[in-house]
Amino acid sequence: MDDKQLRSGKSMLNKKVIKGSVTLMLAATLLLAACGNNNGNNPASNATNSTATGNAGQTETAQKQDVKLSGEILIDGSSTVYPITEAVAEEFNALHKDVRVPVGVSGTGGGFKQFCAGDIAIADASRLIKAAEEEACAANGIEFTKLDVAYDGLSVVISKENDFIDYLTVDELHAIYSSTSGTVKWSDIRPEWPAENIVLYSPGADSGTYDYFAEAILGEDPIKTEGVTFSEDDNVLVVGVAGSKYAIGYFGFAYYEENADKLNVVAIDGGNGPVSPSYETINNSSYTPLSRSLFIYINNKEMKERPEVNAFVNFYLENAGELAGEVGYVAMPDELYAEQIALINK
To answer: Would you give the end-to-end CA distance of the chain in angstroms?
Structure first.
């Protein structure tokens, strides 16, 4: 994602500062030894810990004594999660001006590399952590907590000029992107469609969106590589698909919404008829199989020892619902945010 895209993500925010002071929740310890890693993608799974440990009273002391928070909280990872995290960071900085919260966009895989090396406090992720990444974290003594922050619907997009695609089945989408399908032209998908080559765009391999699409649509089959444009920059995908009548691509729902004047979204038939991504269909999971949760992963040691990190994570969960909607994602139910706040502060 280039500077233009980053600025675009920021411009989607209204610049109001969330009113009132953030409640810095706390109990006897900040983190608990509970819930082994839960690798389900069900949003109800909420927060999970990797051998979390506790520390008492830091944020409460800072709040009671009106101690000014300061420092730098390093965050990197998913370009899909970036708009939410950047929105939270801006609002948090408006309240705590001496805390810097730079947010990078190296992709989910790139974020986990830094996170498991201990280089950043928080990783943005549009997929669950992989076993190899967990092992890398364990090898470096990094214990973590996973938090669900919003819902997203991975959106399949085509050019405004495309006048022949009304919807795609999961099997057709598989055939379009699978290297084993043998399809080259749109007429290979449906005979009545043009005998024109399919022009493919995809996020790069470091992207959690790429991983999720591969798992949900391709299964064990590898994705096509010949003639496919891969990019970690969502703007490259937008421009490429918009510029060709015979192109197709995919990325997060927020980026489709931001570029709805240039692109059409494709309804997907997951077995119960064609469904387009929307706030309602993503929230109720009727947009299947491309509805998903978005995550942040927290370094437990950073959360335990640094009051500014503790304050930021609580602030994130308290405000992610409102800010997710403002930047084009779908908020989780309030009770799920509350459960996670209670868990990290138990």
So the answer is: 37
